[in-house]
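So, can you check?
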Amino acid sequence: MTDISELFLYLPGIVVFLAESGRARRLLHGARLQAGVLRCDHVVKKDKKGRETYNYYNVLVEYLSPKTGHRERRSVKSPTEYAKAQQVFIYLNQGRGEPVLAEAEEEALIHPLAAMAGGALLILLALFHNRGDKAMAMLCLAAVLAGAGAGMAWKAIRAKRAGLVEIDAEVTDIYTRQISKETKILKGEKFTYYPVVRYQLDGRECIRRCNVNSERKQAFETGSRFRLYYDKKTGRIYEKKAGPAVAAAGAVLLLLGLLAGASAVSVLLMQ
């Protein structure tokens, strides 16, 4: 009979594979369309106990339909606040048939398809481990480490080649989202804090509620400076970029993966 602990070894790979499949679908199905923001409304809903159940921005965008050639308008839900006339990118007919804003899928250190491959390798690792084939399990682990390291290093190289322009933004407000409320069982309330920043881009003032957040209230201060990165080629704004630290971490993972792979291959050759 299969030990329950053996089944748990499959969970990391399954979680990674399924989590990245959503991003991969957005990447593979449908082209991105540029759209302009017409209106942005903040929507907050709470349950009977005062806990937040929905908290998002309802963004009304206008875009040129590739099918009809006419300008159309759609409402899109987003965790980020956008200024009127700000340019964004959307995917049509994603998820449940609703349009989706292309906000953060390109900021990930690992490409979604590569991450899905890593999840599949983790599943194979668990399979070989449960079968007692340690050499093949080590080979799968080596591939995961080397792949992650190579992806991170390449991300840092691409960020440097892109020539991202630094934008000096100012934190104008701190958006506070209540995660949980104190009850008889759970002591203390929990909050997540998001900085709202203002910056100039092409002579236009823009407002952005950042995706970066913290559970510490002191992590962001009103009036402090916040650094953004602008890609002139794509028109995208990034809150962070892969720098030397990411490149160094990627190089270390790549080296560990190659060493583990060499060790696993030597074991297989001796068998």
